[in-house]
C-alpha cells in the first residue's frame, strides 16, 4: 500500500436498499472511481453504530461514509432517522477529538442514483485527499 | 468451525482481465478456514449451479464464499440456482468483484486487485464469525377480528368468511352500516346506503362464520401476528378472543364546521349530513340551495382533499332540483374533483341537469348575508372576474372527513403509527392495506378519505392480504420480511448482558423490543415475528447485549479490521 493511497482510504457503510443499489448502478455503467474505496453492505443505516465508525478510523480509514435511504423513505419505517441524529452527534465528538467531523460523510437519500453515488464518492475522495494524514492517530504497530 | 469453500468467477474475462484472480486465489488458499479455492469461467450459466452444488456436497462444505458480480446483477440468478439445488443460501456470501471492482477500477488493475482481495477478506470474516438466528415457528390462529362494520369492515368480514375464516366483527353502533346508514342515496347510484350494503349485511347475518358484536369496543390488544389476544367490552360484559389477524376499518367522521359561514348561529346553514337527514325525512324546502365546497378542507390546517364532498354535492344538488319543483341549485367550488370515468360523467350529468357552478378563490371565500336566517351569498367568480350575489334560503357546507379520535386510540393499542392528520398510516408505497405491525391490516376511511365503493374494494383487499397469512398452519419468523426472500435474521437479546436501559425499545421501528420484568430487574426481549433485522437495537445497545447473529459485532469488527489490510 502506498502512502498516497493510505491517505484516502474510504470505508462506506451502504444500506442494501439505497447505497448499495447506487454502487451497483455506478458499476454497471463502468463509472471510474478511486480504488481506495471499501464497502460494507448493511441492512440499514440504522445498523451503523458510532463505535463502528471510530473503529474504522482506527483500522486505517481516512474517511467514513454512511449511505442510507431518504429520511422518511427508510425501508425499515424510520430506522434511519435516529441513525442520522446519532451520527450527526458523533461528528461533534470527532471534532472534539481532533479527528474532524468532516471525515464522516452522511448521505441519506442522495446515493441511490448511480451518478449521485459516483459524485458523492469522488467529492468525498477529493475532500479526504486534502485533509492531513491520519498516521499520528493510528497505533504505532500499523 | 465449518469449512469454507471459495469460488471465484472470471465472468468470461470481465473480472479476470482487470483483477488478478490467480494472486487472489493463492492468498485465500493460505487461510486456514478455507477448504478450497476454485476459479470458474461463470456461475450463472446452465449447469453451473449443479456443478457448484456437487463440489460443496463432495467436500462437505458448510459455507460458501463467491467472488462474482453485484448482488443486484446476475447474483440473484446464482442464488436462485443454488437454492433450487438445495443449498442453504443463508450461508452463501458474495463479494462484488465485477461491478464493484473490475468495472469501476479498469484504469488501475493493481488497485482493483487489492480492493478485490480486501472485499473477499471482509466477506470471509463475515462467514467465519456469523451465527445463525434460530428460526421460530408460530402457530397461526385461523380467526380474524374486524373492527368497524361500515362498508370497508363489512366487505373485509365477508371476504374473509368466503375464504373460510372465522370473523369477529365489532362495531360501536347497534347495527352494521357505518356512515352509510344515514345516506338515502349513495352517489353515483340510485340506491340508499342500507340498500347498497344489503348483500353484505345479509351475508354477515346469515354466515355462521361471522359473529357481529354490536355496541362493542376493543378494550385491549396483546400479542403479535398469528396470535393476538383481544379483550372486547360490550353490553354483555367483556369477551376474550385469540385471533391471527386484525383488520382495522374504523372509518372517519365529517368535520363539524363550528364558526364557519355562520354555522351554528344562522338558521338554514347546514352540513351535508343534516342535508341527508332532511332528505331521509322528506322535508327539504328551498327556493335556491347553495353548496359551498372545501369548508375546512384544502386549507393550511387540513391540506388534503377529502375525495367524497364534490360528488356528494353533485348528488344533493341534483336531488334538490328533482325533489323540490321550481328550485335552483348552485355549487360554489374551488375545483370540482371528479376523477375517473364514472364520476366525470356524473359531473357532466349535473351540468346538463341545470346545476350552476361558480368557482371561487381560497383567498376570497364567499360571504353570507344573514339576519338570523341566511338570505344570500356574495361570491367573487374568478372565471369571469365579477362579484355575484345569490339569493338563497338554504346553505349547505361540504366539510371533509377527519380522523376519528377513537381510531387513534386503537392505533396506539395496536402499535401502529398515524399520519399528521390522525389517519392510520399504511406501509408506503407497495403495501397499501398493511401496517407497521404485521398481522394488522387497514381499509376504508380510517386510512384516508375514500368513497364507499373504494372502501369496499379496500376491504376486499385487506381480506385477501389477511387470508393469505391466516391460511398458513404455522408462520416462520424468518419468512415475515415484507421483501422478496427471507430476512437477514432477527435480533437476539442476551439477558445476562442487558441492563434494561430501554434504548432498543425506543429505537425499534417495529416495536419488536419489549422490556420484561425478570426478578428484580428489567431485561429486553425481542418479538421475533415483528423484528425485521434492521439492526437499530444493536447499534444503540451500550452493552452489546442486542445482536443480529448473522452480522454481529464480531463480524462488523472483523470486516472493519480487514477493510484496509495490506495486501502483500
Structural summary, described in words:
The complex is a heterodimer of chains A (142) and B (568). Chain A has 142 residues and is an alpha/beta fold. Chain A has one domain (3-9, 22-130). Chain A contains 5 helices and 4 strands. Chain A has helices spanning 3-6, 19-28, 50-58, 80-97, 114-129; strands spanning 10-15, 37-42, 63-68, 104-108. The longest helix of chain A is centred in the middle third of the chain and has 18 residues, at 80-97. Chain A is globular. The N and C termini of chain A lie close together (12 Å). The relative contact order of chain A is 0.22. Residues 1-5 of chain A have low confidence and may be disordered. With 568 residues, chain B is an alpha/beta fold. Chain B folds into 4 domains: 4-130 and 556-563, Rossmann fold (3-Layer(aba) Sandwich); 139-251 and 404-475, FAD/NAD(P)-binding domain; 256-400, FAD/NAD(P)-binding domain (3-Layer(bba) Sandwich), CATH 3.50.50; 492-550, 2-Layer Sandwich (Alpha-Beta Plaits), CATH 3.30.70.20. In chain B, 30% of the residues lie in helices and 24% in strands. Chain B has 15 helices and 28 strands. In chain B, the strands form 9 sheets. In chain B, strands 8-7-6-12-23 form a 5-stranded parallel beta sheet. A 5-stranded parallel beta sheet of chain B has the order 14-21-15-16-17. A 4-stranded parallel beta sheet of chain B has the order 2-1-3-4, sandwiched between helices. In chain B, strand 18 (367-370) and strand 19 form a beta hairpin. In chain B, helix 6 (151-162) packs parallel to helix 7 (193-206). The two termini of chain B are 26 Å apart. Chains A and B meet through helix 2, strand 2, helix 3 and helix 4 of A and helix 4, helix 5, helix 14 and helix 15 of B.
